[in-house]
Amino acid sequence: xxxxKPAINALGRAQGAYCDMGNLLRARFAARELNLFARRxxxxxxxxxxxxxxxxxxxxxxxxxxxxxxxxxxxxxWRVTARTQVPHTKLYSEERERPVYILCxxxxxxxxxxxxxxxxxxxxxISALLSWAALEGGDRLGALVFNDQEFRDLRPKRSKHTVLAxxxxxxxxxxxxxxPLGSGPLTLAQMLKDTRRIAKPxxxxxIVSDLHDLDAETEKQLFHLHRHLDITLIRTHDPLEHAISxxxxxxxxxxxxxxxxxxxxxxxxxxxxxxxxxxxxxxSDTTARLGLEVIDxxxxxxxxxxxxxxxxxxxxxxxxxxxx
Length: 324
Hints:
Pfam families: DUF58 (PF01882)
CATH class of the largest domain: Alpha Beta
Oligomer: single chain
CATH topology of the largest domain: Rossmann fold
Radius of gyration: 23 Å
Distance between the termini: 26 Å
Organism: Gilvimarinus japonicus
Largest sheet: 7 strands, mixed
InterPro entries: DUF58
Number of helices: 8
Strand content: 15-25%
Order of helices and strands: HEEHEEHEEHHEHEEEHEHE
Protein name: DUF58 domain-containing protein
Strand order of the largest sheet: 6-5-4-7-8-11-12
Number of strands: 12
Domain DUF58: 63-279
């Protein structure tokens, strides 16, 4: 359900069945409007431009507290100490950076779409926007791209070369897709297990996937990752996955075989809708238990606008954990 060749869009938006390198490169201009860490405190021990909740010597005064063993004596507040006759230490907010990892799903299940582009193309475009935004923010960028057979990773570096290498990985994996039917063993849970080995504590991890195989093992791996990383789930999906309406028959294909769905059958429509509702509820329950944020982006959406709603430089913090 889509073009066989990548479409080129002057605005760099996601289109077609395969991603286009020109669109991924043009995403850099839109990414300037994004600030990935507008609402997040970092945990990394590297210096950078992001204010964190680490306490230590820095440029911004934070508070005064009782002296504790191991505190730097140079930070003692002698005025408060003299007044209270109890040693007190000054604390400061430091500026630090955090490595950014982008995990992009390019498995066969992502090779589907009914509006504008395939989910796999949308995932590549979102990953490109996040990559350019990380570079713009002066953060070290790492990437992990996987299909159902293998994965490749790039270690975090603060350079345009790393972003370009990541875009090449995205295009390479994307253009290998030929069918939505996969036969490989690599699941999201297994990929997350490998991510635990690769990503350093304190990093920010953006997972771009349709999350079709979110199960108990995946939840377990997310739980372990979330203990040490800041995780944002970005789920790609297509309107046709949520509901089917109309009359007559709908022909779908996996690139080899064709099958007709009785979209005019009310019973079929109801069963299809109920199946999707169960999946939505499972996702909602799982992310609520883990305390994870989910950003839903459809192939019918403008991914730049959806990301701007969450990461726009002028946006205020939302009280909701789930972006509708």
